Each structure stands twice: as C-alpha cells, then as structure tokens.
Amino acid sequence: MQKRLTLLGSTGSIGDSTLDVVARHPQRFSVYALTAHRNGDKLVEQCLRFAPEVAVVGDADTAAAVERKLRAAGSKTVVTYGPQALVEVAKSDGCDTVVAAIVGAAGLVPTLAAGQAGKRILLANKEALVMSGDIFMDAARENGAVLLPVDSEHNAVFQCLPSEGTKHGGVTKIILTASGGPFRTREPATLVGVTPDEACKHPNWSMGRKISVDSATMMNKGLEVIEAHYLFDLPGDRIDVLIHPQSVIHSMVSYADGSVLAQLGNPDMRTPIAHALAFPDRVDSGVAQLDLTQVATLNFEKPDYARFPCLALAMKALAEGGVASATLNAANEVAVDAFLNRRIGFMAIAQTVDAVLNALDNRSAASLDVVLEADAAARRAALKIIDSLPVPA
Ligand code: NAD
Ligand code: MG
C-alpha cells in the first residue's frame, strides 16, 4: 500500500534528501503535507513538484506569499501557518507516516503529536527526544506509533539489533561512531578563533548549519548518546562513542559472544532515510554502492573529552536525568545561534551550556509543560550569560 507522508521541515537538508528518495518511488510514497519555516520560495517549488494537500509555514506573511505563488501556478495546495498548523498536519488522517525533520526544540510538539496519533514516525529531530525522552517514548508506545530512526548512527544500530531490540539478553553495548568533525586534529588552543563557516565545513557530511556546529563541538554525539538511551532503552554506560574519521561504519552493536555487528555505507543520509521509509523493504536510495577498496583504511580512536567538553556535558546531563538534557539542549541551541551570528566565540558554546546547567536546578521531567518550562528557563539563562561574554574579534 502506498505510504502517505507528512514531511516536517521539508526545506532543510533532511527534507531535501527525503524528497529525493520519495521522487524515485512514486508508486510507494506520496506527499500529504510539506512544512517550512521561512523559506517560502523553496516550499513553493516543492509543492509544485510533489502536489501536497497542505503546506505549512511559520508566519502569516510567508503564508500569503506562498499562497499567491501557488495559485498563480494553478496549484490547489492549502496553505496554513504557525505551530498549531504543524500539529494538525502531524496528526492528520491524511497521512500515515511523519518524517520529523525540523531542527531543534521547535520540532518537539508536532513530533509528539504524531506519536500521540499513532503514526509511523521517521525521526531525524533528535532534539525532540533529548528534551522529552520518556514522555515521547511513552506516548509512542501507548498509541501504537512506530519509531524508525533516521539519524545515521541510530538507523545503523536499529539495523544491527535483533528484533527484540536491547531486550535480547545477548546485546552488551551500542557503539556510536563519530567522525570527530572538522576540528578532530586541530590544535585546541586555536579553536578560540574559528569562524562559523569553518565550523560548518564538515569533512564527510553535508547538513544544516545547527547540526554542523554541533558536530564540530561534538555536542551532536552527546545528543545522540541521549537519543540512543531513549530509543534503545539502554543506560548511558552501555553506550560507547568511538571516533571513526571516515564515517563509513555508521555504528555498531556488540554481543555477549564477542560478535560485533556494524552497518556500513557511503556517508549519505538518503541511505538511512530510504531504509526507514521503505522498512522492512529495501529500495534504491540513489546512493552509490560502497567501494571498500576506494576507502582502503578505516581508523578508530577514543574521543578526547578535553578537546570536546560538550560531549562530556551531554553525558553528565544524561546521568543526572530529569530536565537536565532539555536544559542542555536549549542552552546549546541559544549558544550555537549566538556563535553562528558571531556574537560569541566557538569555545563559548561549551562555556555557556556548562554555566546554564550549573545555574539551574534540575527536576523530574514529569510532563510536557515541565519540559517546555525548563527549555524556556534555559534559554533565558543562556541569553543572560551570553550578554556577559565578549564579542569575538
Ligand atoms: P536544516 O536547518 O537544514 O532544516 C531544518 C528544517 O526545519 C527546515 O525545513 C526549516 O524550515 C525547518 N524549521 C527551522 N526552524 C523551524 C521552526 N522554528 N518551526 C518550524 N520549522 C522550522 O536542518 P537539518 O540538517 O535538515 O536537520 C534537521 C533535523 O535532523 C535536526 O534535528 C538534525 O539534528 C537532524 N539530523 C540531520 C542530519 C543531516 O544530515 N542534516 C543527520 C542526522 C540528524
Ligand atoms: Mg547522526
């Protein structure tokens, strides 16, 4: 049966890759809704190509502009806007599958709505799970939602786990691989002066700017450890991080008998996206077959927590539990934004997150409201700390 998709965040990097795979299989997938924040022109192009029933944008002005262009081109796509409109398309009967590809905390409420509506969810928006892991997983379980990880590491783990998941007695550990980002070998003392463009120049992956900065600080891997903890129900001390600069092994699962299963492939998000879209089938993703003679060498090293303090901060937040990881995530989003806008230096990202975690009390993540309050409080605290920091030269 054809799958009908809502694609939250269709104009981003994951959105592009998803639509590329969808376009290869028109008999398998059709599009119910596409959503963007401010990039109305790109959304118009996507609507004209994929003819969704609904298109959602962030505000009324963008909606009016998108609607005008769509009508002029003869499109019948209905245009809506705002956070509630995202929730509506995520839970609508018009779709069975929701691709959660909004960046950051803005993805939480619509992704949770998809969980509550029992959808099949292709999860790229790791921040949603980092903020509200237990709430999100409970909602998915109680409402029969199926969660398919799109994050390449988690998709790899999913592929390497037995069907019972980590409940299978033989699973000992998950090993998340990490490229180490653009600054893996750079002299730590020189990191103070790196620019946003340098931080966004990832050696292996092409991604949105926020996750690219997170890869450079390795906060991304920290968020992924938290994501893995909730997705696969394993404590943090059974989730290892291993630096693997070639990004060919996307992650591994180790077993009691000494076996280690790994998933390999060229670093292209269309592979995990195609896997999750078609699961349990396998379809062409447009990604070239891996040629190991070309790759030739696979290297591995331990992560350097002194060079990458954000990784250690995320591990600490996971160990603390409660709203600590929502606090960490919000402080990081504000700090990354300030770095991208050249308001703070690169090393001040970790400094800001650390200061916010120290300044705010932790408490149990008892409800979505508590999580959203913790998120808001962390944003306020981060902005205050950033105000006191020097503007980089
Ligand atoms: P991106 O910045 O390229 O795209 C983000 C999308 O979200 C865009 O469509 C944008 O319009 C939308 N958006 C942004 N702010 C919004 C808001 N406030 N409200 C509604 N929509 C909003 O980001 P990306 O690189 O595609 O990443 C998306 C998510 O996938 C992130 O959570 C990221 O961590 C995760 N992810 C990305 C990759 C990758 O290769 N890009 C890999 C693994 C996981
Ligand atoms: Mg990843």
TrEMBL record:
Task: Write the Enzyme Commission number(s) for this entry.
Answer: 1.1.1.267
Give the pathway annotation. Isoprenoid biosynthesis; isopentenyl diphosphate biosynthesis via DXP pathway; isopentenyl diphosphate from 1-deoxy-D-xylulose 5-phosphate: step 1/6
A Pfam family of the record is DXPR_C
Give cofactor(s), names only. Answer: Mg(2+); Mn(2+)
Cite the entry's keywords alphabetically. Answer: Isoprene biosynthesis, Magnesium, Manganese, Metal-binding, NADP, Oxidoreductase
Q: Which InterPro entries match?
A: DXP_reductoisomerase, DXP_reductoisomerase_C, DXP_reductoisomerase_N, DXPR_C, DXPR_C_sf, NAD(P)-bd_dom_sf
Where the record annotates domain 1-deoxy-D-xylulose 5-phosphate reductoisomerase C-terminal, the positions are 147-232
* Protein name per the record: 1-deoxy-D-xylulose 5-phosphate reductoisomerase
Residues of the DXP reductoisomerase C-terminal domain: 264-380
Q: Where is the 1-deoxy-D-xylulose 5-phosphate reductoisomerase N-terminal domain?
A: 5-133
Q: Which GO terms describe its molecular function?
A: 1-deoxy-D-xylulose-5-phosphate reductoisomerase activity; manganese ion binding; NADPH binding
Q: What is this enzyme's catalytic activity, as reactions?
A: 2-C-methyl-D-erythritol 4-phosphate + NADP(+) = 1-deoxy-D-xylulose 5-phosphate + NADPH + H(+)
What SUPFAM superfamilies does the entry give? 1-deoxy-D-xylulose-5-phosphate reductoisomerase, C-terminal domain (SSF69055), Glyceraldehyde-3-phosphate dehydrogenase-like, C-terminal domain (SSF55347), NAD(P)-binding Rossmann-fold domains (SSF51735)
Q: Is NADP set as a keyword in this record? A: yes
Which NCBIfam families does the annotation name?
Answer: Dxr, PRK05447.1-1, PRK12464.1
Regarding protein family, the annotation reads: Belongs to the DXR family.
Positions with a binding annotation for 1-deoxy-D-xylulose 5-phosphate? K126, S152, E153, S179, H202, S215, N220, K221, E224
Q: Where does Mn(2+) bind?
A: D151, E153, E224
**Sites where the protein binds NADPH:** T11, G12, S13, I14, R38, N39, N125, E127, G208
GO biological process per UniProt: isopentenyl diphosphate biosynthetic process, methylerythritol 4-phosphate pathway involved in terpenoid biosynthetic process
Please report the organism this UniProt entry assigns to the protein: Paraburkholderia tagetis
Q: What does this protein do?
A: Catalyzes the NADPH-dependent rearrangement and reduction of 1-deoxy-D-xylulose-5-phosphate (DXP) to 2-C-methyl-D-erythritol 4-phosphate (MEP).
